[in-house]
Amino acid sequence: MKIQNQSMISFSIHRYQRNVTSLTKTLDKLSSGLRIYRASDDAAGLSISETLRAQIRGLAQSQRNMQDGLSVLKAAEEGLMNVNNLLQRIRELAVQNANDTLNASDRAASQKELEQLLQAIDDTAEKLEFNTQKILGENRPLRLQVGANPGQTIAVDMVDTSTTSLGLNGATLLTQTDAEQLIAKVDNALKKVTNDLTNVGSDYEAIEHHLNNAMLKEGNLTASESLLRDTNIAREMMNYISENIRQQGDYLLISHVNRNIKDILELFA
C-alpha cells in the first residue's frame, strides 16, 4: 500500500533546505549592509571591490601625508617671517651705525643687540622642528607621497636660514665700515629669505591642488565601491519576504505529509 509520494516530499525537503540557506544569506546581507558578504556571493565583484578599497585607503593616507606637509610649510612660513623681521631690525641697526656720529659706547650697545638678533636667527633655524625633523636648519628636499600608487610623490625644498647660510656669521657694527658692509650682507639675506617665502607659498598651493584631487578621487572611488559592494536594502527585503513565504509553505507541506503518514500508521497499530 503506497502511503506517500516520495519524490514530492524529497523535493519539498530539498527546497526547504535551499530556502533556509538563501534566507540566511539574505539576513547576512541585511544585517551587514553588504551585498558581497562572503567571496561566494560574487568572487569577481569582491576582487574589484578589494582593489578599490586599497586605492581608497591609500588616497586617505596620502591626504594625511599632505596635511602633514602643509603643517610643515605653515611652520616654515612662520619661521621665515620671524627671520625676516629679525633681518629687518639688523638692517635698521646697520643703517644707524653707518652714520659716523655714533661714539664707541653707542656702537657697543648696537653690537650687543646685533649678537642677540643673530642668535635668535640661529635659534629659529636650530629649534624649529616637525616630528623631530629640522624645518629651517638644512637644505634638503622633503618628499611627500601624494597618491595611492608608486611614483606619485612631490618634493618641497627645506632651507637653511642659519646666520652662516645667510652670510651673517661673525657680523659686527663696531666701525662705520663694518656697518656699511653689513647693510649689503643683510640685503642679500633678505632676498634669500623672500625667495624662500615665495617658494613656500608655491609649494603650499601645489600640495593643496594635489590634496583636492585626492579628496575628489577618493569620493568617486568610494561611491563606486559602495555601489558594487553595498546591499540594496529594498531588494533584499523583498527577497527576504519571498524566501520566508516559500520556506513556511514548504514547512507546512512537509508537516502535513508527516502528520498524514502518522495518522495512517496509527491505523495499523
Could you say what the CATH architecture of the largest domain is? Up-down Bundle
Order of helices and strands: HHHEEEEHH
Q: Residue share in helices?
A: over 70%
Number of strands: 4
Give the class from helix and strand content and strand pairing.
Answer: mainly alpha
- Biggest β-sheet: strands ordered side by side in the sheet: 1-2
What do the pLDDT scores average to?
83
Subcellular location: Secreted; Bacterial flagellum
Domain Flagellin N-terminal: 15-137
GO molecular function: structural molecule activity
Domain Flagellin C-terminal: 183-267
Describe this structure in words.
The two termini are 15 Å apart. The model has no long low-confidence stretch (mean pLDDT 83). It contains five helices and four strands. A hairpin with a 2-residue loop joins strand 1 and strand 2. The chain folds into two domains: 65 residues; 181 residues, f41 fragment of flagellin, N-terminal domain (Up-down Bundle), CATH 1.20.1330. Helix content is 72%, strand content 8%. Helix 1 packs antiparallel against helix 5, helix 2 runs antiparallel to helix 3 and helix 2 runs antiparallel to helix 4. The chain has 269 residues and is mainly alpha-helical. The strands form two sheets. It has a two-stranded antiparallel ribbon with strand order 1-2. It has a two-stranded antiparallel ribbon with strand order 3-4.
